[in-house]
């Protein structure tokens, strides 16, 4: 029986109804009803089925006729609607200004504070609950479209663009109100020109207005050139790139990678809006920038399919669903970028470039906050056995003379070192330390930064440490391998075949080999819980193995190069002797193929004299 024939039983009596579900885009034509019913109780069930089929065909034709009588939302319609809304919001800004006394400084400051609080409230609402805010906005937009007899499908691209433009207008109106309260000299034409430039829709084609705006910009540029001193207004008109350079020059970063990450985040603002004056970055642009970030792919400078695309081209691809969801920037990455910008604009406010931090509190809320350990995958012992199965591993490494690809994953698996800590090792960074209790020599990696070796970088101060070399690595004749390398008097680094990326990152090729070729060929890209696993998961495997072995956190932290988060241990306490770390951590890194049975790595042993001859 068809779903449009409904039979209901009341007190053993059956009642038949024809049920018609109204399409979402046509609900406004039926007082927002979602369905209606017609009683056909006088007919038999078979007759009712025939009647319902006929009624269903009629309603389908009726809906089609209604749609034909509804005009599609065009770009000209959008412009017309936006012009009306812009006029309303400029009027709102004037109302706010008229309600503020220009002669009472306290009331004036109160008016500015109220405007900023309202702006912040709206930005937080959009950032944290955008879905519900869109529903509220849809109510207004649908009534406008209905009054104009336009297609009101909320799923159309044109409608989504209209909704996005409305949000930009609502955010920008607070800037207009502030300008009027401060008597900045900006007028309605400036406001219209600003929003038109932002939306790139050519809303106002009156050449006189354009000429007036152009003349004002020329006069202003001459004024700036003629001023011999730098006051607050000239700081506020500084190009974005110049302010970013000043910020980065002033800040001192112990980690170059962190500085590059921050510089990249700030540079995206220039990519998006051009090298505009910093005072032109307002709430509307912030909201637009946040939306653009969510459209971008991750690793856009590394992946060939995105590398040659401009920022605007990538945003357009993202908005047109040409970038898959899994390829887009993760929420954490977007929030990191917004956080860097919030810190930057806090500095610009403190140094007179801006009068407020437009990025304060801006972030994308997550549906559910997960613990950090839940976001990271680790290789299971079973996966480790497969990854280091002798025949496959040797085929991808030794047989292709890729000795760094052979050693680096193994060392990380049994030391928990970060990949670049291993890749950047020098021959003399392998040392022996005498055990304090046993008196025996313990072979170790000496991880440190050296002033005469600027290509060596550690992530944090806590990363400087001594890491004992695991017996499994020694059993694979690692010391014999080093002895052969040392015969070449010009060789300095253990893995000298690895080239530096950006001066200090030697791990790039090893990561690509592992993440994009080797593990992918083996089909090992997620853990048992479906979380993504990468080379860094080897480090997580070490940490988790030690944790499951009930090793004290203070030993694990030192072994892994983490801060103890204890001022007595971090600032005043010395590092543990190598023998202590060996006994508590190194010797307890054991992987099992089954309960109680260790994974056998002896099949990976190589005759280094023969291989390196």
Summarize this entry quickly.
With 613 residues, the protein is mainly alpha-helical. The protein has 26 helices and 8 strands.
Folded structure, characterized:
- Helix content is 53%, strand content 7%.
- The protein has 613 residues and is mainly alpha-helical.
- It folds into 4 domains: 5-68, no CATH class; 75-221, no CATH class; 240-350, no CATH class; 381-611, hpI Integrase, Chain A (Orthogonal Bundle), CATH 1.10.443.
- It has a 3-stranded antiparallel sheet with strand order 1-2-3, covered by helices on one side. It has a 3-stranded antiparallel sheet with strand order 4-5-6, covered by helices on one side.
- Residues 206-232 have low confidence and may be disordered.
Keywords:
mainly alpha, 26 helices, 7% strand, 613 residues, three-stranded antiparallel sheet, 53% helix
List the helices and strands and how they pair.
Elements: E1 5-10, E2 13-21, E3 35-39, H1 45-68, H2 75-98, H3 105-128, H4 130-147, H5 157-181, H6 188-199, H7 207-226, H8 232-236, H9 240-250, H10 256-273, H11 283-295, H12 304-307, H13 311-319, H14 331-350, H15 381-387, H16 390-396, H17 403-415, H18 419-423, E4 430-434, E5 441-447, E6 465-468, H19 471-475, H20 478-485, H21 508-522, H22 537-548, H23 553-560, H24 567-572, H25 578-584, E7 592-594, E8 597-598, H26 608-611
Antiparallel strand pairs: 1-2, 2-3, 4-5, 5-6, 7-8
Helix pairs in contact: 2-5, 3-4, 3-5, 5-11, 9-10, 11-13, 17-22
């Amino acid at each position: 029986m068809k779903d449009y024939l409904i039979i209901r039983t009341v007190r053993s009596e059956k009642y038949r109804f024809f049920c018609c579900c109204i399409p979402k885009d046509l609900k406004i034509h039926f007082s927002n009803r979602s369905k209606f019913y017609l009683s056909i109780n006088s007919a038999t069930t078979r007759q009712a089925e025939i009647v319902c089929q006929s009624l269903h065909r009629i309603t389908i034709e009726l809906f089609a006729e209604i749609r034909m009588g509804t005009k599609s939302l065009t770009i000209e319609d959008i412009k017309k609607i936006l012009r009306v809304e812009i006029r309303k919001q400029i009027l709102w800004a004037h109302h706010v200004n008229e309600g503020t006394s220009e002669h009472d400084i306290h009331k004036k400051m109160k008016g500015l504070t109220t405007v900023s609080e309202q702006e912040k409230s709206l930005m937080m609402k959009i950032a944290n609950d955008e879905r519900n805010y869109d529903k509220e906005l849809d109510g207004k937009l649908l009534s406008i479209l209905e009054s104009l007899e336009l297609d009101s499908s909320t799923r159309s691209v044109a409608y989504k663009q209209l909704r996005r433009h409305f949000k930009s207008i609502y955010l920008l109106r607070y800037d207009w109100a502030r300008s009027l309260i401060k008597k900045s000299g900006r007028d309605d034409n400036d406001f219209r020109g600003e929003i038109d430039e932002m939306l790139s829709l050519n809303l106002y084609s009156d050449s006189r207005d354009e000429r007036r705006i152009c003349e004002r910009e020329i006069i202003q540029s001459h004024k700036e050139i003629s001023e011999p001193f730098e006051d607050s207004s000239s700081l506020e008109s500084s190009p974005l790139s110049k302010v970013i350079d000043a910020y980065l020059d002033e800040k001192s970063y112990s980690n170059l990678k962190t500085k590059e990450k921050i510089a990249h985040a700030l540079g995206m603002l220039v990519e998006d809006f051009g090298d505009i004056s910093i005072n032109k970055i307002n709430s509307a642009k912030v909201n637009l920038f946040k939306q653009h970030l969510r459209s971008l792919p991750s690793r856009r400078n590394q992946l060939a399919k995105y590398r040659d695309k401009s920022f605007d081209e990538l945003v357009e691809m993202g908005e047109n669903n040409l970038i898959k969801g899994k390829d887009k920037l993760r929420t954490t990455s977007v929030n990191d970028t917004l956080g860097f910008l919030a810190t930057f604009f806090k500095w610009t406010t403190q140094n007179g470039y801006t009068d407020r931090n437009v990025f304060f509190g801006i972030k994308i809320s997550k549906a559910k906050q997960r613990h950090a350990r839940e976001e990271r995958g680790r290789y299971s012992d079973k996966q480790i056995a497969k990854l280091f199965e002798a025949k496959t591993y040797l085929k991808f490494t030794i047989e292709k003379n890729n000795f760094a690809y052979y050693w680096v994953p193994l060392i990380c698996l049994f030391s928990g070192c970060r990949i670049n800590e291993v890749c950047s090792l020098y021959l003399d960074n392998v040392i022996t330390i005498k055990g304090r209790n046993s008196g025996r020599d313990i072979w170790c990696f000496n991880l440190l930064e050296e002033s005469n070796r600027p290509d060596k970088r550690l992530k944090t101060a806590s990363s400087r440490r001594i890491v004992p070399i695991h017996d499994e690595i020694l059993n694979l004749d690692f010391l014999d391998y080093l002895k052969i390398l040392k015969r070449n008097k010009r060789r300095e680094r253990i893995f000298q075949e690895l080239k530096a990326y950006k001066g200090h990152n030697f791990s790039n090729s090893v990561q690509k080999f592992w993440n994009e070729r080797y593990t992918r060929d083996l089909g090992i890209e997620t853990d048992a819980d479906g979380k993504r696993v990468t080379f860094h998961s080897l480090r997580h495997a070490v940490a988790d193995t030690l944790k499951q072995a009930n090793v004290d956190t203070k030993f694990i932290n030192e072994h892994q190069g983490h801060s103890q988060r204890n001022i007595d241990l971090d600032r005043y306490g010395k590092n543990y002797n190598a023998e202590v770390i060996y006994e508590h951590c190194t010797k307890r890194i054991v992987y099992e193929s089954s309960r109680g049975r260790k994974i056998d790595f002896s099949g990976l042993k190589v005759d280094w004299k023969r291989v390196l001859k």
